[in-house]
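Risk register update: the risk that structure generation would not scale has been downgraded. Supporting records follow, first protein first.
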Amino acid sequence: MAAREAVGLTRGDLTLALGLSSPSRIRVWESGIERPRPRFVPKLAAVLGVEPLQLLDVDPDDPPLAALRVAAGLATNEMGAPGMSVMTYVRLEDGRPGSEPTGKVIASIAAVLRIDEALVQSAIRRSRSDHAAEAAFR
C-alpha cells in the first residue's frame, strides 16, 4: 500500500495498469491475505517504480532462490531448461540438502532468470540455510 500511495495511485489505477478485473485483488495483496502471482510481480514493480525484490519481503542483498524466480515473473513449472529438469530446480529452491549443483545447472538457472551465476549460487546457499533453520523447529 505504501508503495502504491507513494506514487499517487489508487487501487483502481493499479487495477487498470495491471489489467486486472477488480481492485479487490489489490486489496487482498496489500492486506497480506495473498501474494501476487509471479507473472504480476515485474509489472507491479515497474508501475510502482521499485525493484521486484522489494515487493517480496526478502533481503535484496541475500535473496533465496524462490524470490529470484518470482522477481523474474516465473512460475516454478517454467524453470526447466536444457540440462536441468523442473524437479532439480524445485529441490534447489526448497533448499533440500544434497549434492552441490553442477556448473551446468547453475548456468541453466542463471540463463532462465537472466541473472549472474554467482547470484544463483548465493541464492541456493540461502535457500539451504533457510530450509535447515525451518527443519530445526520441527
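Supporting record for the second protein:
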Amino acid sequence: MLEAQGFIVQEWHRFEKTFRFDAWCDRMKLPKAEKEALNEWIGQAPDPIKRAFRIEIKDNRVVSFQGEAMIAKAVKRG
C-alpha cells in the first residue's frame, strides 16, 4: 500500500505484540454490548486458537491476547 502511494519501503520489522483486551476494545471504540459479545466469543474459542493467540482469561474475562504488528520506514519517491 505504501508503494502504491509513491513510497519506497526501506526497512520493515514484524513482531508479536500483546494486547490488553480492555484497552484494545477502548481504542477500537467498541460499544459495551459488542465488547461483551467479543469477550464471550473469544472465551468459547477452541483451545488450539487460544494457544495460538496466547489468550489469557481470568474469571471468564479476556485479559489479553497476542497478535502481530509491523513498523516500516519509507520515503517518498523522487
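The CA atoms of residues 1 and 7 lie 9 Å apart. On this basis the risk owner (M.S.) recommends closing the item.
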